[in-house]
Write a structure and sequence with these properties.
Elements lengths: L8 H13 L3 E2 H10 L6 H13 L3 E6 L2 E6 L3 H17 L3 H10 L5 H13 L1
Antiparallel strand pairs: 1-3, 2-3
Length: about 120
Amino acid sequence: MSKIQRMSEAEKEVMQIIWAVGGSISSAWLLDELKNRNKDWKPNTVLTFLARLIEKGILTAKKHGRANEYIPLVSANEYKRFETRSFLDSVYDGSIKKFISALYEGDDLTKDEIEDLKKWFSQR
């Protein structure tokens, strides 16, 4: 995975739409979709989000006449792995064991979840 950066919540909203499409989109299409989702973001605001996503290595743009086509460089799953690893590194010193221990000690895991985890680990 390339060196990507963390997204803001608004940038994540934009990317969720782009990832759901499964391909490239135009800014005009994105603006229409955001309007359909009752987002009253101004076009310049959305263009700023898109520019930031390009800077962060999450999107790329190709020129088509006067319009840009935006194409994801990072999949939703890749970004989730990036966020998960960042969280583990910053909160649990990169230790999955410490994370699971915190969930277990906090009674956040049910017996069924523990059994599912045991099965999952044994199959890996």
